[in-house]
Amino acid sequence: MDWLRYKWQLMLLTRKRKNAINIETATWATLAEDATMEHLLKVGRTNIEPFEEDIDKLHSSRLSARAQKYRVPESHFDYYWSKHRKHFLLKPTAVEALSSAIHEARKRRGEVFRLWLPAITSVLSALIALAAVILAGIKH
Question: pTM for the full model?
Answer without folding.
Answer: 0.66
